[in-house]
Write a structure and sequence with these properties.
With about 100 residues, the chain is mostly helical. It has one domain. The chain is built from 6 helices and no strands. Helix 2 runs parallel beside helix 4.
Length: about 100
């Protein structure tokens, strides 16, 4: 396969750009994408360092927030988020 064929193959699968990737990021983190959209998003991440870095940062942050907001898991880690933060996060999540 020559370079042109290789680029055409990439273009067939990577049908989203950075803007769409960032707009799709939270649905991906929450497992809300269908298989096709997830594949396109993940393919984009494989080829875009900037979006990959953003996705990894958001994944780590989201995971930390989820663990901190869950009293059962947080007790195990001894890092329970303050009640005021838990209340604000719950309020923000309900507004979504």
């Amino acid at each position: 396969m020559d370079r042109v064929d290789e680029m055409n193959e990439i273009d067939k699968h990577d049908d989203i750009g950075c803007l769409e990737a960032i707009e799709t990021l939270y649905a991906w983190l929450d497992g809300e994408l269908d298989a096709s959209k997830r594949a396109s998003f993940e393919h984009h991440l494989e080829h875009c360092k900037s979006c990959y870095s953003r996705a990894e940062l958001e994944r780590a942050l989201t995971g930390h927030i989820r663990r901190s907001a869950s009293p059962a898991e947080a007790e195990e880690e001894r890092s329970l988020a303050p009640a005021s933060l838990q209340n604000r996060l719950e309020k923000l999540l309900k507004e979504l």
